[in-house]
Amino acid sequence: MKTITFRKYVTEVLKNAIYEKGESSNVIVSEAPDLPGCFTQGRNFEEARKNLIDAIELWVTVGLKKDEEMPVVNGCRIAADVNLEQAEILHEDWNKV
Which architecture does CATH list for 2-95? Predict the structure, then answer.
C-alpha cells in the first residue's frame, strides 16, 4: 500500500468520481463513492467537479480532525502525519485551479 499526500489523495478519490445528470432538475450530480456521503452538484460538469473537490477536501479534513481512519483509495492511504494547517493551504491551492 502506498502512502500519499493530502493533495494526491484527493486526486485518487477523483479518479473514481461518478457524474450523472440530475433526474428532477437540470444539474450534474457528482459523487465520490470511496467517501460515504460525499456528493454535490453543479450547473455543468466543470462546476460539479469543482464542487466535488471542495466536498472531498471538507470530508477528509473533518475526518482527520475527528481522528477517523481514512479509507484506502486505489491502493493508497493518506499520510498519517498530514498537518491540518497544510491541508487547509492545499484546499486554497485547489481553488486556484
Answer: 2-Layer Sandwich (3.30)
